[in-house]
Amino acid sequence: MTQRYALKIQYLGKNYKGSQKQVGVNTIQDEIEKALCTLIKESIKTIFSGRTDAGVSARCQVLHFDSNLIIENEAKFLNSLNALLPDDIRVFEIAKKDKTFHAQKSAMFRHYKYTIRNDFVENVFDRCVLFCKYKLNANRMNEALQYLLGEHDFSAFKSKSDNPACVCNIYFAQAKRSSDGKYITIDIIGNRFLYNMVRTIVGTLLMIEKDNLEPLSMFEILKSKERANAGATADAKGLILETVGYDNCLEYINKYIGKVHK
Amino acid sequence: MTQRYALKIQYLGKNYKGSQKQVGVNTIQDEIEKALCTLIKESIKTIFSGRTDAGVSARCQVLHFDSNLIIENEAKFLNSLNALLPDDIRVFEIAKKDKTFHAQKSAMFRHYKYTIRNDFVENVFDRCVLFCKYKLNANRMNEALQYLLGEHDFSAFKSKSDNPACVCNIYFAQAKRSSDGKYITIDIIGNRFLYNMVRTIVGTLLMIEKDNLEPLSMFEILKSKERANAGATADAKGLILETVGYDNCLEYINKYIGKVHK
């Protein structure tokens, strides 16, 4: 009888072709499975909560695996595992789970954050931030985002034609300028996201701003279900998977808003 | 008659052998002078407020140069200059100055910040942060730092024997744990700093913690004037030159404390 374990990991996406294992390219899942196999000396298969695209980072990605190993000292296990991982991937939590837990299927929501430095010059200390010199209006962007709330067919924001299930439920969406005025952060929380969907939504916000369209355009683009109407897919470098949630989303949103608005 | 200009720049030190021009190695000053010469089409010599060591970063370093060029559109000049610089160096301000202004000699104070992640696991999003797993006591470190305030001979914290003038005046020194408990930041503000001095002070704080010495040891080490009594030079990667000041230091300190303690 094997034991199921859940891991919480974080990574910088820059050096990887996404999170999901693929033949011939370097991915987050490859690195994690390689390290687990070396440490546990078993062939380990991991299930991620979902895939992040090439170049996308994660502050908290969740995955599970089953193993014959009974881990007694969890801190020591994490230390050993991290020592086997590249510097840009770290495991920061391990937990024993029932077999009913499934990193992907049990997930209740995902929270993505896209950050834009909107100033006349870059900041060399920034990580995972898109630079945009063109002055953006965060209030207008926020207004446009509200049209995405609720359950909709997001075909207009998908990047590949091969995904037939395009209905997603967006629980929270916000664009906000930082207190120093130099950054705009875009938070989107939903039950699921299509391939490239967050980046295409951000690209559409940038299009609305640059072409001086009405925020209502977002609603029209959504309703059209036509990818051609949306903006270009924004660069992966600005995107972070903030967290994957397995509990009440409303509680999480309230806590999160309280934190960023304090 | 040439015009004197002051530039404010920021950089990541990781890829450079320090700020100061040296034959055969890559430095911040080399990159800045190369970009200025290309843009202005004059041979430009820059004077920095002071040098930062190999691997040390700066959030605000100041330098001046003289040129025959009359810069009319400063924003455009900065844009063109930044386009000629590597991604890890950015110029964010240019100002016309009288010939009485001297980036090094007119400086009233320098503010250095050293950041330590003091948790069981690294954070992949960190930049310019030293990782230390060993649990540190920020209160004890802060107490030790207070013995450095005022004018002293800092020979105990110098790294090279060839500097005869070792008297520095420290105006402010603070070690503080972050609100999430995972970081310790060490701020030191003084009129001048010896080569490697801040890093050796930080190394001494780490020695005091690891060897469980009394905070008063800092005072004894300072008074001994013996480098052998101080701790090892802490890694350059945690150090940032926060700013160089040309005005009243007290005003700056009050404003800074107000900001970090809010």
Key traits:
homodimer, 262 residues, alpha+beta, Alpha-Beta Plaits, 2 domains, ten-stranded mixed beta sheet, 6 helices, 27% strand, globular
Can you characterise this structure?
The structure is a homodimer of 262-residue chains. By secondary structure, chain A is of the alpha+beta class. Chain A has two domains: 3-97, 2-Layer Sandwich (Alpha-Beta Plaits), CATH 3.30.70; 109-260, 2-Layer Sandwich (Alpha-Beta Plaits). Chain A contains six helices and ten strands. In chain A, strands 1, 2, 3, 4, 5, 6, 7, 8, 9 and 10 form a ten-stranded mixed sheet that branches. In chain A, β8 (167-177) and β9 form a beta hairpin. The radius of gyration of chain A is 19 Å and the shape is globular. The termini of chain A are far apart. The model of chain A has no long low-confidence stretch (mean pLDDT 94). Chain A binds chain B through residues 10-12, 57, 59, 75, 78-79, 82, 87-92, 120-125, 127-128, and chain B through 10-12, 57, 59, 75, 78-79, 82, 87-92, 120-125, 127-128.
